[in-house]
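Why show two proteins at once? Because comparison is the fastest way to build intuition. When a single record is shown, students tend to memorize it. When two are placed side by side, the eye starts asking what differs. So, the first record is below.
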Amino acid sequence: MIEKDDDKNYAYLAAHLTTGEALKNILDALEGQGVQAIILKGIYLASAVYEDLGRQPGSDIDLLVKRSDALRVEHSLNQLGWKAPNGVLSSLIENAKPAAMNSLMFFNPDSLVSVHLHWHIINSTWPLESYVERIKMEEIWQAAVLAEVEGVAVRGLGPEHLVIYLCYHGFTHFFGKPVYAEDIKAAVARFKGDINWDGLYAQADKWGLRWMVEYCLKYIKNPRTGKYPDVYWLYFIHENGVRRKALFLYHTLFPRRGTMAAIISLPVNEISLKRYWRRLMCR
């Protein structure tokens, strides 16, 4: 029920209704190809977690697909009018080595809705490959739950995975917006009776993210507006061993070519030493 700050909440509601129409068209197209997708945040949180489209401000579609389906999904999005820089997706997903950059934005000139396509829950321009290596996406797909968003059947993350993911998302974004903490609080409250906390912490341990989850669950009890965690250095500190720490620093300065291509929206064959030099010189 919309009560508080009506103008803002009606804007959220209108955005989600527009998103819902786009989401239905996209899921219909993917279903026709036999492709499964999980909705990570935004309209899924508004509907399945907040249970009120007027309370959560997400506006784009965060779509998680299997890595092996990503190019087919790109084709479907292209047919519906959503485009991304040419060649970037293939350069990202065909990299044999684990990469921290596991998403790409798609835009449609005829729609206010953008699509953020993911094929892993870790997505960062920082070199978080050690977490990518630990997380087995098969476990996430097996634990996915079914829900309904505006009459559309969708998949969402299982409760334990959702809490861990929202912690990762809020933490990585410095809790720069109040909604990042609110999303975690809402998910914990919504699935309070369904969350297996021992299982959640065991999963976070397995993924190397328990330190982050514990930090975030403590943080949301007393969010400190304007006083964000020093996220980069906490990631650095929690890299195991001198070699991993050295690689973390190296790949911060010199991201893999696919990551660079995604950052500056260019085909990977245009990523040259000159591009890295400009990055170092902040130009």
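Second record. Ask yourself what differs from the first in the token line.
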Amino acid sequence: MAKKILRNDLKRLRKVKGLTQEEIAQKLGVAPSTYSLYETGERGISLDKAFLLAKIFGLTIEELFFAQENCVTQKIN
């Protein structure tokens, strides 16, 4: 279930923050193509990268994986 939530939310979270896939990939230290696979759910994300994503979005790891969509969007705006 967490993979589905993360996949569905990464693009939305990135857009709310006004970041491109390339910018997020650079912050994570991965290729843009790798980050794109995270967004589509075609590649799983390691725990260390998940923690970095949470930090980029200003969320806790729990919020990144399990929070309700509207609560997370309000927090990062």
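One difference worth noting in the second protein: Residues 2-76 form a domain with the 434 Repressor (Amino-terminal Domain) fold (CATH 1.10.260.40).
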